[in-house]
Amino acid sequence: MSHNKLEQLPHEHAQPDEWHRHTPAEGAPQAEHGAKANPAILALITGGFVVTVGLTILLSALYFFSYMTHERQLKKETTILSEEYRAYRAQTEASLSGYGWADPAAGTVRIPVNTAIDRVVADYSGGSH
Question: Which domain holds residue 105?
């Protein structure tokens, strides 16, 4: 097979048709449209992309730090409030699970809630306490 031989596909012709020909008024064949790049426009477009990406990163970082500061503040407030809640809960648990005076002037005592439940069930079931 020779390398100098012009190979053509079946739908191609040896001679171009009128659509491919240029008229004498056109002069020389036209230059391809993207043959000459304008460095100033390319630099402007590249700079625009760089600025856009930089601003996107900066705004994302600012939003992230703002959001995380808010979340840390909420966690801090929740932790402080939870300390108060734990103290309240411990006091309530001690009150419900121990013996003590509910009203010393009236002579009313406090008994553990489980004992009180057992006594109420025994009273309703007819058993003795």
Answer: 99-129
